[in-house]
Amino acid sequence: MPLTILVADDDFATRLSITDYLEIIGYSVIPAENGKEALGLVQEFQPHLIVTDITMPQMDGYEFVRRVRLRPAFRLLPVIFLTERTSTEERVRGYQMGCDNYLAKPFELQELGAVIRSLLDRYALIAQAPSRSPEPEQMPAEARSRANGNPEVDFLTQKSKTGDSLRGSSAARASLHQNALTLTQREQEVLDLVTEGLSNVQIGDRLHLSPRTVEKHVSSLFRKTESNNRAELVRFAMEHHLVGNW
Questions:
Q1: Which end of the chain, N or C, is less packed with Cβ atoms under 10 Å?
Q2: pLDDT digits over 192-238, tens only?
Q3: Structural domain spans, the chain
Q4: How far is residue 104's CA from residue 107's CA, in Å, rounded to a whole number?
Q5: Strands, DSSP E only, in 49-153?
């Protein structure tokens, strides 16, 4: 079955052109005229990706995506904003709402298609990633003892956790900050452009890299910052002053 994409835009011509193009290249498309209608369609059709305008009647794109992100089943649903609002403040707000990518109007349908494929490929890899528990012989001694019901080790571990819990949160943040400081020059360049709202295709054009190479750098940034999407990556970069002008 083809992957389903929800397209929300109050402009009929834009909505129709996107719908026709995406159907031609093999996707199933659900159109919506505004955020309120789109919100109901998300629950009904459970799309694999959302393409949405920001300025729409009844419910704008920001509120629409915010409400989508409140639902656990759609926390990682890829979202692309199409908009004429291209200021830094608007892009930051969009990422904070949970969008993965920004495309400024007017845009090329081929670029939209490339961004969609990139996001769907990445989220497919995330969904297919194994989450197996380690075998007993691969587990630390304390974990093996707990698994075998050793109460003495369990007591010692619980006692240790009491002290560790007092500094766990700050230690985790320190670890993330340390990882962020080990960015390569190319990763830093990619991070700078991600915070500007550029897509992988646009970043590749700016840095003379292929979209696949850009995707590898973005994935590395996700790993080093423990971010799940671009919104979290941008937020991390801002909080840790990893990009200029923040």
A1: N
A2: 888 887 787 888 888 888 877 888 888 888 888 888 777 778 888 88
A3: 4-127, 174-239
A4: 6
A5: 49-53, 79-83, 101-104
pLDDT, residue 123, reads 78
SS3 50: strand
The CATH number of 4-127 is 3.40.50.2300
Query: What sign results for the dihedral spanned by CA atoms 89, 94, 100, 102?
Result: negative
Strand-pair category, 28-32 with 101-104: unpaired
Give 51's strand partners: 7, 80
Looking at residue 244, what is its pLDDT? 65
Q: How are the residues of the chain apportioned to helix, strand and coil, as percentages rounded to the nearest 5?
A: 60, 10, 30
Burial of 93 (0-12, 13-18, 19+ CB in 10 A): middle
Residue of 42, 45, 41 whose CA lies nearest to 74: 42
- Cα distances from 246 to residues 88, 134, 230, in angstroms, run 11, 41, 17
- N-terminal to C-terminal alpha carbon distance within the chain: 44
Please say whether the dihedral angle defined by the alpha carbons of residues 94, 95, 101 and 106, taken in this order, is positive or negative. Answer: positive
* Beta strands at 4-8 and 49-53: parallel, antiparallel or unpaired: parallel
Which CATH number is 174-239 given? 1.10.10.10
What's the pLDDT tens digit per position in 115-126? 999 888 887 777
Tokens of 81: 């904003």
